[in-house]
Structure formats: C-alpha cells, structure tokens
Amino acid sequence: KHKLCMIPGPIEFHEDVLAAMSTPATSHVDPDFLPVFGEAIEMTREVVRTDKGQPFLVAGSGTLGWDMMSNVLEEGDSTLMVNTGYFGDRFAESLETYGANVHHVKASIGSRPSTKDIEAALVEHKGYKMVAITHVDTSTGVLNDIQALAQVIRQRSPESLIVVDGVCAVGSEELAFDDWGIDIVITASQKGLGVPPGLSVVVASQRALDVFKKRSSRIRNYYGNWNKWLPVMEAYEARSALYFATPPVQLLYALNVSLKQILANGPTGLSERIDAHRKASGQVKAAVQGLGLKLVPTSLEGAANGMTAVYTPPSIKTPDLIEAMAKKGVQIAGGLPIKAEPYFRIGHMGISVVEPERKHIQHVIESLHSSLNELNYRS
Ligand code: PMP
C-alpha cells in the first residue's frame, strides 16, 4: 500500500508526471521525443533562472553532478567547501577522488558558516578554483544564504567558480543563477523537480564552460565528460538527436510534464511555488515547535523550506516514531550519520505544498501529533 512519501526526496509525484513515466517504448531519436527533451533543457534554464547557462540532463542521480565537477577541476586544484552536514562531506569526497584539495568551513551541527567566516577563509588562502556550497544540506535541514555568500565570494575571490549543490533546493528554495552570479548548480529529479529518481541535472555558466574548455589536463571521467554531453544537449535543444549514451526517455517525458507544471504562469508560477514551500515549512515548523520539539537548524532563517529536521524526544526511539507514522500511512525519514542526537526528517516539497495536495501537510502534522501521543510523549 502506498504511504504518503514525506521524506526529503523522493517526494510525492503528480499523477500526470507518473502517467508520463508510462509513455510506451519510444526511440531516443524518434522525432516525437526531440521536443520533449529540447523543451526540458529550456525549462531547466527557467527553473534556475538563467538565460545562457548550459543544462546537462543525464541519466544518473544527484551524485553524478558532484562527479561532473571533474570537468572543471584539475589535479591539485583547491576547493573551499561551505559545509553544513553530511552532503558537504560526501561532495568533498567526490572532488577528492578527482585529485582536488578540499578545505572545509564548517559550522556546528544545525548552524551555518557566516559570510564573515567565508570571507576569512578566502583571505587566508587565495586561489580557490572552486567554492562549493550545499544550498540545503539534507542531513541537517540547514539552508545557506547563497545570494550573500556569492556576493562575498565574487568580491574576495573573483576567479573562483561558485558551485551550488541544489539537490535539496532547486524548485523549493529561492535561486537566481544569473543575478547571483552562480557558475554551476547541481540537482536531481526526485526532489523539488517532482520527478522519480534517475536524472542528474546540472547547469553550467559560460564562465564554467570556459574553464572546462581551457583546461590543460585530460578529463578523468568517461560517462560524466562534458565533451561527450555538450554536443548531445545542443543537438536536442536544436530538436535533433545525437547519441552518446541512451537518455532515460520516460524520465525526460516526466520532467517535461513536471517542469511545465512548475513553470505554468512563467516566473510568477515559480515564485508562487517557492512561496508555497515557505508557507508549508512555516506551518510544519510551528507545529513541531508547538509540540515542544526542537529543530535541528539553530535559526529559522537558516532552515530549509523544503524539509524539516527535528530532534526526537529522549523518551522516544526514532525507529518507533517512523513506524508509528508508517502505520498511519505516512513515511518520514530518520536521521543521517552525523554527530547529532537522534533526529528525524520530514520532507515538504513539490506538489505536497500546492493545492489540491496541500492537505498532505496537515496530514503529516496530525499523524506526528497522534504518533507522539501513542508513544506517550509529554513535552
Ligand atoms: N546532495 C544533496 C544535498 C542531497 O540531498 C543528495 C541526496 N539526498 C545528494 C546530493 C545526492 O543525490 P542522489 O542521492 O540523488 O545521488
């Protein structure tokens, strides 16, 4: 039986998106498929708010986006990681695999480095090829202020590429790729974009593509090599086909449908959707705080709008809470292996924050309330 999937990705899918996944077998060079892929590329630009950024839509998960950074990083290049949790550690691990030296600016669990911390790191060590920031670290639910950080990075280290891991943020948090001067955004299909898992989505600025084109060493990556994918993306956008590796046809049909929903009414629709995430998040956070529970993020402005991380009360075991919720037909997530007291996570992204599925939010709150009662929780 289907449980309402209220984890921080994969999220609930719209029935039209699921129907698109059932598109009968279609050749990836079928003329009918070309505009499906082409439009998805164009709409990806819109969703991150860029005019000229280059999207890469490739079968894979969010992790492939990290690996694709091997297109711009060369052996020995240094990267500054604005680290707010588990996914910052993992991102660094991927970059190190390709020979990058990663320095971390880390705040204590639940908080985020300040612009002053980043400024100090950029003054202390010059020449970072890349500054990588996890927009929302899904392990802590901490939201970074990309706009403010990007401004400081541009001032102090204009040559650094600004890379945003937006896997848990694109479609649910405010992001302005061009206006904020972002160079690369990495995301995936299964969260704010509202599509089943299996698509890696990366957008690169012209500046990032220049760095990629001017590199002197060979790219130590085969499947993720932009030299292979760039002509493919350009071809589909021009409504022609080019093969490097088989595109996930049904996922691209699904992405096309989901992006059309997100972008219905253009930029207004997008900003309304971001706003709906903010409202749903406010409702969930107020409810858990009202129950006397403590959020993992130490400030509300530094807390994600697409998910909520909450400490489990000491008298309750997290797996018991997850099970009690599951019995009520609601799937929530436990914590990830970070050095924190036991905690759980609720996702509230995508269709669950807009009508008519907005009732999911009330449902998860009520289930949490009654599950805690069953487990004899007293605040
Ligand atoms: N970055 C962040 C912030 C994530 O939340 C995740 C997945 N939860 C990833 C990267 C990795 O994405 P995937 O699991 O799709 O490979």
Tally of discrete structural domains: 2
Q: Strands of the biggest beta sheet: in what spatial order? A: 2-10-9-8-5-3-4
Rg: 20 Å
What would the average pLDDT be, to the nearest integer?
Answer: 97
- The N- to C-terminal Cα distance equals 33 Å
Specify the overall morphology. globular
- CATH homologous superfamily classification of the largest domain: Type I PLP-dependent aspartate aminotransferase-like (Major domain)
Structure, described:
It is a single chain. By secondary structure, the protein is an alpha/beta fold. The protein folds into two domains: 4-11 and 266-374, Aspartate Aminotransferase, domain 1, CATH 3.90.1150; 15-262, Type I PLP-dependent aspartate aminotransferase-like (Major domain) (Aspartate Aminotransferase, domain 2, 3-Layer(aba) Sandwich), CATH 3.40.640. It contains 13 helices and 14 strands. It has helices at 15-21, 33-48, 62-67, 86-97, 115-124, 146-156, 177-180, 206-214, 226-237, 249-262, 266-290, 318-327, 359-374, and strands at 4-5, 54-59, 78-83, 101-106, 130-134, 136-137, 142-143, 161-165, 184-188, 199-204, 307-311, 330-331, 333-334, 343-347. The chain has a seven-stranded mixed β-sheet, sandwiched between helices. Strands 11-14-13 form a three-stranded antiparallel β-sheet, covered by helices on one side. A two-stranded parallel ribbon has the order 1-12. Helix 1 packs antiparallel against helix 10 (249-262), helix 2 (33-48) crosses helix 9 and helix 2 (33-48) packs across helix 10. The longest helix is centred in the C-terminal third of the chain and has 25 residues, at 266-290. The protein starts with a strand and ends in a 5-residue tail after the last helix. The model has no long low-confidence stretch (mean pLDDT 97). The structure holds 4'-deoxy-4'-aminopyridoxal-5'-phosphate (PMP).
